[in-house]
Amino acid sequence: MLNFSTDNYLRSTIVLTIDTITSMIASGLVILFIHLLGASAILTNGFILTWLLIALIGSIFGFIVTSSYKLVIRFSTLRDLARICMATGIKEIILLMGISLFEPWLTARIGMILIFSDFLIAIAGLLLTRVIMLTVYWLSKRGSSSDGKKRILVYGIGDKSVAALTRLRFSTHYSVEGFIVTGDSTELNKNLVMGKPVYHFKDSADLVRIREHNNIEGILFAYLPDAREEKNGLIPACLSLGIKTYLAPSIDEIKDGKFNSGSIRNIKIEDLLGRPEIEINMSEIRNMMSGKTVLVTGAAGSIGSELCRQLATLGVKHLLMFDNAETPLHNVRLEFEEKYPSLYFSPIIGDVRNQERLDHVFKKYRPEIVFHAAAYKHVPLMEENPCEAILANVIGSRNVADKCVEYDVERMVMISTDKAVNPTNIMGCTKRLAEIYVQSLGLAIENGSIKGKTTFVTTRFGNVLGSNGSVIPRFADQIEKGGPITVTHPDIRRFFMTIPEACRLVMEAATMADGTQIFVFDMGEPVKIDDLARRMISLAGFQPDVDIAIQYTGLRPGEKLYEEVLATKENTLPTDHDRIYRAKVREYEYDSANGYASQLETHARAVQIDDAVILMKKVVPEFISKHSIFEKFDKKS
Q1: pTM over 0.70
Q2: Predicted local confidence at residue 141, as pLDDT
Q3: What residue ranges in 156-267 does DSSP mark as E strands?
Q4: Of 382, 296, 381, nearest to 345 (Cα)?
């Protein structure tokens, strides 16, 4: 019995045998057709034997050359029909040549009638056998797995949506009942696409009718930008009615022309908060990185590890992954060994606060480009541990920058934050102090007061979606535990950017810099954290304030209600990239910046917290503490 299971295909050798037999039957029918027309005079035993032998050779040759027998029949398309026609055409050419050679007495007119008839009958036979095999397969699947499927609609009627229907046609998990479109026009309500009805959505009442009529359990988006367009329309309506929203996999997740059972996933909040892809000049980035030894500090963190992933595809000669977190760096190593087996990379345990360890790494590997992502980032924790924030963020950055100059690194790119703009907390101020030191060092090299060749670039951006310890993973964990979700304030807003998006902009900014510059990114519109929490609850299939409670805990030490807008006409200058701007910041003399850094290090190592914070406020006068015990120093400074 033919095996038509979901995971096993009809063997190509069996298909080749069936196709060859079908083609030979067609050639036999041509002989019968000639006999019935009363032209038996030409049907000598020698002619029949020659005709069938050449037909056999031509059939096998045509099928093998075109590989038509290797096609997965249940995913057949018009392109596959063209390949079958091509295979049959090759057979007919061989037949024509053979008959002309071995039966020269046959007239051209009769020969063309034979060839043309054989072509038509063979094509019809091959198509008929495929229809029969598809019917048998469909009946077997219908009989064995019709129960338990999720009844879904596919969003839109574009090419990607139709392709999703094709790939799900024989799914054992999902049954596509039709398509759903949005907008004011209802003309598509009466249309069929691929034999499936097209439904129109304008408001929740439409969705209620569609669900009741078809028992719909979910909506599948074949294209992520479509889901983002409906984040305030169809998706909230689905969530309010308990209808799941799914996202089809990207093209590189599709295997053998179909979706894997686990590749279709629920839409996540990160999908809806993202923006359209940013245009990046990858050729310039590749030209800069290709063949270079590149060091990434903080390589096991969210930003650092994603930088490493993108660098792994850019032809770097040697990728150095530097981090003090043993287990996360080990996990990154395992990932890269699996995903990038040809990449030459070295995971290095070390701390940017340790000058001797940094010196060993720079001396041994001689990096040409450095991405400095190592830093302490959690605002409340750094508010409680300011001396450690100074040592990691300020002194660590100084150490890396100094080694870049000492070992003639071409370019150092430092990852900063929007919290460095008018800082209200220790973490933001330490990042601003790191910016000051790196910028002053770069300017000193440019004006010749310090010998060196390194170009220093700083990049500022806001919160990244899904980073370690950020709000989204925390909310997801709280939802999984049944709540409550804790939000500091009902009106608190933050800017968000995806990790890959941020890293692409970092590398783009690195290629744009022609000197010591601080670049800031356009973060788009701020997101209200309370709305984000409620949407995450809904996406998880629960009802906010009913199934999952939301508790407001109050602003934490050092926390702002609203983050600073990074890119405004007042504080930035435009660049050639519409999402990247040059920051207009106060410049410091290197001697002063270096002196301040040394004093801060002295206070930090001695754990002289008050003296350290007072000095920070002196160096960065715009540092005004919020909801913090250090507000008492603002008047003094």
Answers
A1: no
A2: 54
A3: 174-182, 192-193, 196-201, 218-221, 244-247, 265-266
A4: 296
